[in-house]
Amino acid sequence: MRIANHPILGPALETDLICITVDGKELKAIKGEMIAAVLLANNIRIHRFTSKRKEPRGIYCGIGQCTDCVMVVNGKPNVRTCITPVEEGMLIETQYGYGKKGEIDV
Amino acid sequence: MFKKEVVIVGGGPAGLAAAIEAAKAGAETLLIDENTKAGGQLFKQIHKFFGSRAHNAGTRGINIAKSLLEEAENAGVELWLNSAVIGLFKDKKLAVVRIGRPEKTTLIVEAKNILIATGASENAINFPGWTLPGVMGAGAAQTMINIHRVLPGNRVLMIGSGNVGLIVTYQLLQAGCHVAGIVEAAKKIGGYGVHAGKVSRAGVPFYLGHTIIRAEGENDQVKRAVIARLDHNFKPIEGTEKEFDVDTVCIAAGLRPLTELATMHNVRHELIPELGGWMPLHDANMESSSPGIYVAGDSAGVEEANAAMDEGRLAGVAIAQSLGYLNESKAEDLKAEIRSRLTALRQGSFGEKRLSAKLKIIQMGSAL
């Protein structure tokens, strides 16, 4: 959920919205915000499944250090979604192991 | 290949302060940061700092960051954003991956002096369910609410009552989350009384002498968390479990220095538990065991933003002096002033441990 009003930071500014696609679903995102933020705003918290044990992973450190939140972005796997800004038309997919679902067998 | 007099890795409080000092003195200074914006973690510190006026008391971290960025620009610091330093080789050569100009390119930068100001990373604690989406660092939750303005969840359990745990709890409340409690293994609250008082008055219960024993999921995400009381050996006591209906668990279990680059250059490290673990040794000028390689801020021992800025300034002045941009008397005056501010920051029941650990580092570091 987005924070519309904040006691210190004030109301959210009017911003340009762009369109991205997450696992085939279109979402509106704020220009320049991080992929992980848009996902959280839409209550999407699972970013990937691990290769061996197929366990879910999401945001852990939020600042690009832990690499837990990586996803497939525009076809490229292992993109750190917490420090990668959205771009118009970006295609974001849940990562399975080291790539898209069924793409890389491990 | 690029050649620079000073390269600073990390644009947080330490790196920015160092860059400002070096550039102001006349050194050709390049600041490299992998993020889209410099400022490090200052932008998520929306609370007012306290302490003395020399240390920004009453100013919010976010505003300190804004003025540092402005000062750096005015001082003529060259800033490479979206640029990750992935290697530090002998002869002080850095490998830098620059994103988006227009493509990703890897460059080599050779520097006369390098400052490593890469900050720290949050510690994790392991318990069944700790990898479930919804379990995250307290700093991650703080980034989500204060920088990205999104809630990490609706109902949060905070693990750890140090200053990070307390401040983030309060900021989660400000953002509109419910915080079900703060769980602390020790018998007393870890952080400052002033922060503890604020969350207490807001009605957040403390569970002292407790720890989280598991997070349980539903649909692959956190659905509840279970804590238990600890015995005198810090083992959970059976039958004392308490269950919380939460979708988020935040871990505030301290931080450790990020020193990968320093280790690549064979900089001498030591284990200093009081400041977060393994860290590079340095002398009174913040210079490491490798001549021309300096460290400052959390990557030289985890403290807080004010200490990081002053350590950065100290390194910046020392570097400018070594390059001949500041004469000895001017540089020594500036350094003495900064060192006395640092000592003033390391006082009181919280600071004394840090002061003695820092003295130990400097003593060992000077002997190298």
Question: Any overview of this molecule?
Answer:
The complex is a heterodimer of chains A (106) and B (368). Chain A is mainly beta and 106 residues long. In chain A, 7% of the residues lie in helices and 32% in strands. Chain A has one helix spanning 35-41; strands spanning 5-6, 10-11, 17-22, 25-30, 48-49, 56-57, 70-73, 76-80, 91-93, 95-96. In chain A, the strands form three sheets. Chain A has a five-stranded mixed β-sheet with strand order 4-3-9-7-8, covered by helices on one side. Chain A has a three-stranded mixed β-sheet with strand order 6-5-10, with no helix packed on it. In chain A, strand 1 (5-6) and strand 2 form a beta hairpin. The radius of gyration of chain A is 14 Å and the shape is globular. Chain A starts with a strand and ends in a 10-residue tail after the last strand. Chain B is α/β, with parallel strands linked by helices. The mean pLDDT of chain B is 95. Chain B has helices at 13-25, 61-75, 138-146, 163-175, 193-201, 260-264, 305-322, 328-345, 348-366; strands at 2-9, 29-32, 78-80, 83-89, 93-98, 105-116, 120-122, 135-137, 155-159, 178-184, 206-208, 210-218, 221-229, 242-244, 248-251, 255-257, 269-272, 277-280, 293-295. Chain A binds chain B through residues 1-3, 6-9, 12, 32-34, 36-37, 40-41, 45-47, 55-66, 68, 82-83, 85, and chain B through 34-36, 41, 46, 60, 121-122, 124, 131-137, 139-141, 143-146, 148-154, 174-176, 217, 220-221, 258.
